[in-house]
């Protein structure tokens, strides 16, 4: 009997948290409204939290959507809090150059916080953590929605491309970490700049018709052997 009461109480708290989160999202929408459009906006407010998040995703500007997907994917897959400068580095990668990611230092934003918030809107927040600034979802329900089958089967507004499969996201993040470590080894061992180290990884991958991750793994394995 006691366990049942605890379960019911937990369910009630979850529902209350969702309603509170829904209210916060609506207030955020209204905060950006001009006085003349408040009434119409109130009439068009989403009825559920899912609808609210879908609306936020829909309103992400088209040029930002691919990067928003990658940023959200990193947050979903991360095993630890990601520092602002770590996540912002994703925005400096050109993913459309001959199918092989390419670092473009000129794409780095001076205001990294603004860059991230502009890309992902109110789905994320940036908070202080000791001496660092870390990026996190604005609420746990955001991650739940992004990884849910509800979004995966969303038929309206072509939003299903935001759906994130947790295991695939973690594989992608693991590969990204390996590439970063291999780049660091090349920078140290060959005294290369970050851009040149990344370019070397990319060129080697293209010449050998392999993925950059495969080349990175080979470099990391060789580095481990040399330490023995």
Walk me through the structure.
- The protein is mainly alpha-helical and 228 residues long.
- It folds into three domains: 45 residues, no CATH class; 105 residues, Arc Repressor Mutant, subunit A (Orthogonal Bundle); 56 residues, Orthogonal Bundle (Arc Repressor Mutant, subunit A).
- The strands form two sheets. Strands 1-5-4 form a three-stranded antiparallel sheet. It has a two-stranded antiparallel ribbon with strand order 2-3.
- Strand 2 and strand 3 form a beta hairpin.
- Helix 9 packs across helix 11.
Highlighted features:
single chain, mainly alpha, Arc Repressor Mutant, subunit A, 3 domains, 11 helices, disordered N terminus
Helix and strand arrangement:
Elements: H1 2-31, H2 38-43, H3 49-58, H4 65-77, E1 82-83, H5 84-88, E2 93-94, E3 102-103, H6 112-120, E4 124-129, E5 132-137, H7 140-146, H8 149-152, H9 166-189, H10 194-207, H11 212-227
Antiparallel strand pairs: 1-5, 2-3, 4-5
Helix pairs in contact: 4-9, 9-10, 9-11, 10-11
CATH class of the largest domain: Mainly Alpha
Q: Could you give the order of the helices and strands?
A: HHHHEHEEHEEHHHHH
CATH architecture of the largest domain, by name, is Orthogonal Bundle
Domain module count:
3
Number of helices: 11
Mean pLDDT: 79
Q: Please give the order of strands in the largest beta sheet.
A: 1-5-4
Query: Strand count, sense and closure of the main sheet?
Result: 3 strands, antiparallel
Percentage of residues in helical conformation: 55-70%
- Work out the number of β strands: 5
Compute the gyration radius: what is it? Answer: 21 Å
Separation of termini? 60 Å
